[in-house]
Amino acid sequence: MSKIIIKNEEQIAGIRASSKLAAKTLEYIRPFVQPGVKTEVLDAKIEEFIRSHNAIPATLNYSGFPKSCCISLNEVVCHGIPSSRELKDGDILNIDVTTILNGYFGDTSKMYTVGKVNNAATKLIKATERALEIGIEQVRPDNHLGNIGFEIDKYIRTKGYSVVYEYCGHGVGIQFHEPPQIEHSAPQNSGPKLFPGMIFTIEPMINQGVPHVITSKIDGWTVTTKDKKLSAQFEHTVLVTEDGYEILTQV
User: Fold this and answer.
1) Residue 208 maps to which CATH number?
2) Which helix (H) or strand (E) is 27 found in, with range?
3) What is the per-residue pLDDT for 106?
């Protein structure tokens, strides 16, 4: 595995600024998430907002990805491609944004609801957001990286859901994806120890049913639950500080 990049003060400041912009982008788009709105319209507004702040959407043309953000609806776990699909009452969706500001990356995502959402979907979303919080609470110097995933998985099992294990969080900041991988289901006290200056994403993807997923053979990107049940995800970019953590992707 490549070496984990420990960021210096200048780099941390740059990544913090990019992360704040990514968070503001998710707040900006919230009022537009309404029934009848096409997901490609949301994508266009997100690109316009990011560029108006002298930044670049990192996903656009990344390994051939055609849009400026990922929008994943209902049973789509991740990497949903914005399209002419119109939002409908009862939909749940994840919007995942990564910004490049002055060469630094900030990565975050959150769930949105459209109109009236059923109780089962609401419970899944709340549990997924709590899982992210539980993972972040494990971020402190000298703790093992694997304890993030261990605690997330332990909590999610009590709720009767499953953790997607095929997709992970990752180091971020200087590049879009850096070491280390942040698994959301891991053995206790596994992996390297955390060290101040590390920056990475924690982004648990939680399925209502089985953890297994399928990648579209048509577009090569869209990942859905194998059983077509709902999936949810929240993501923050997190800095390991001298005595704990700082969530960089907060407004």
Assistant:
1) 3.90.230.10
2) helix 9-29
3) 98
